[in-house]
Amino acid sequence: MYISSSTQTFKAYHLLVVPIIIISVFYSACARPSPAQGHVYPIYTQTSLAEQSTASQNTSLSSSSNILEKRMVRSCDPLPLTPETWNELELDFYLKEYPDGDRMTLIDFATSKNASNFVCGLGSICNAGQMCYPVNDNDWYILFAIQQWNSINNMLYMAIGYAISIVQATVNSLISTMFPAVDISGATHAKQSMAISASMMEVSGTLAMDLMMIMGAATGPVGWTLNVLNFAAAAGFAIYAFKQKVPKGPIMEGFGVWTDVVFHLANVERDAHDALSNAVKKVINSPISSKDGIYGVLKGGTFMNTAKLKPIPEVADQLRKVTMAMSMNLVLRDMNAYIAVGADDCYDKGPNGAWPQQDLLSYCPKQGGPMYNIIRAVGEKSENNIPNANVINEIFGFPTQLIVDVSVDCQLRNGGFNHNPYVNGKFPKSEHDECVFNLPVCDARWGGVRDSIKKHHQHVTVACRKHGGLPI
Q1: How many angstroms separate the most distant Cα atoms in the chain?
Q2: Which of residues 205 and 138 earns the better pLDDT score?
Q3: Position 407 in a domain
Q4: HEC profile for 201-231?
Q5: Is 105's pLDDT higher than 90?
Q6: Would you say residue 449 lies in a domain?
Q7: Do 126 and 141 share a structural domain?
Q8: Contacts for 189 with CB less than 8 Å, ≥ 6 apart
Q9: Which run of H or E residues covers position 289?
């Protein structure tokens, strides 16, 4: 097998990182606004009563009275904590145009509002507290949204580790199911024992005859009969030992595959935590009015809600399924598996003419073909069987059609092999997403691949490697 290709595959997946995934169920707060908050108004700067009175001279008396009432009466009862409130207060504009916002960090901003203990980050719990104690008005809504953003990131950090731990344990079951340990010691020992017994009987019979001849013993017909029987028994033991079948071991050493997958899952966890940590630090340390700062992450009121966060095990379970799919992909790639399209026709007894055997992975979109096979490259030969292949769907829930469809779409969309779009903070949400499975695909219906198979009778593996460029 071409170990270099699977090593490259693992290196590609080594870059896999888990980003900031916003997974929450929103339950809007039901706080009732005070009478003074019946109409929402933006507050960008605090003005004195004298300044307000001067400005009101250019407006009608009634309008002036309403504005003064709203400006002067400050309520500590917050408006509903929803994205709509955020947008009505125009907090995006407030943050973007905040004085010195192009130089001020989150810590500077919180300190300027007498909230010096408002320290966010992974492992830290920043709490905006109640409105007016000590922060009020627009600033409180901003700190509250940051509090929610910080809580979600801390939850995700823990969920990533939890999910990877579950997958590592599940991979052990996957490997042991697909590559079961076969104990061949009993059959081997029996075969060796029969061979040794036959040899000993032959030697003992020969020695006995030699001794009789030396001593001139006259054993007569009885002696000759016993000697013939001895040699016949020896021959029988020898034939039995030769015919004794020793069970074949698994196609691959399961422990080695398990070690590879678990090693790379550990690297995934490390890189995911690093990526999330760096993203959080970047927001905290960037100017508040920049896209990299809190203006960028809070824009549109995304975190302006009393979000009821899902329990960590529930979030981890969502991450587990897609991570398990990627682990299955790694196992198949480590087996040098690839997809052959049209190498066989769909006229068998399986669904739509696919192969019916449980150790074969094939998919037929319609009767007659083309057939999509998941096969293995073993040297210059093609092996169709994958022992216990049925467990991939029956136990782990990944049907052949899913693996084929996602892999084919990945190669068509990106043009090439081993494509991994999940870098720089991206992560799939389900096993159906782009390139979660990315087995190499070889179309055996056209060009040099078809000619090599049909005219020159080469194995599909050789044709796909030579004319299709597959890294197998």
Answers
A1: 147
A2: 138
A3: no
A4: HHHHHHHHHHHHHHHCCCCHHHHHHHHHHHH
A5: yes
A6: no
A7: yes
A8: none
A9: none
Alpha carbon of residue 151 to chain centroid: 23
Rounded Cα distance, 261 and 273, in Å:
18
In this prediction the pTM is 0.56
Q: Residue 360 phi/psi, 5° resolution?
A: -120, 135
Q: Give me the residue label for tokens 């040099």.
A: 448
User: Residue 438 domain-assigned?
Assistant: no
One domain for residues 108 and 1: yes
**Within this chain, do residues 299 and 274 fall inside the same structural domain, yes or no?**
yes
Taking a C-beta distance cutoff of 8 angstroms, is the pair 340, 464 a contact?
A: yes
165-184 tens-digit pLDDT: 877 777 777 777 776 654 44
3-state secondary structure of 363: strand
Does residue 53 share a domain with residue 190? no
Closest by CA to 275, choosing from 94, 153, 372, is 153
386 falls within a domain: no
Assign 3-class secondary structure to 240-256.
HHHHCCCCCCCCCCHHH
Give the integer Cα–Cα distance in Å for 426 and 18: 7
Domain count along the chain: 3
Q: What is the extent of the structural domain holding 233?
A: 185-243
Q: Are residues 216 and 319 in the same domain?
A: no
- Residue 334 and residue 6 in contact, taking contact as beta carbons nearer than 8 Å: yes
Q: Tokens for 268, please give them.
A: 């995934």
> Residue 95 corresponds to which tokens in the numbers above?
């943050």
**Average pLDDT, integer, range 155-171:** 80
* 141 and 267 part of one domain: yes
DSSP state of 377: E
Q: Are residues 330 and 257 in the same domain?
A: yes
Q: Retrieve residue 452's tokens.
A: 């090599």
pLDDT for 300 beyond 60: yes
Label residues 129-150 b or e (16+ Cβ within 10 Å = b): eebeeebbbbbbbbbbbbbbbb
Confidence (pLDDT) at 180: 66
Question: Are both 116 and 45 inside the same structural domain?
Answer: no
Please state, in angstroms and rounded to a whole number, the distance separating the CA atoms of residues 139 and 106.
Answer: 12
Annotate 47-103 with DSSP letters as a single string.
Answer: --HHHHHHHGGGS-HHHHHHHHHHHH---SSPPP-SHHHHHHTTHHHHHHT-TTTTT
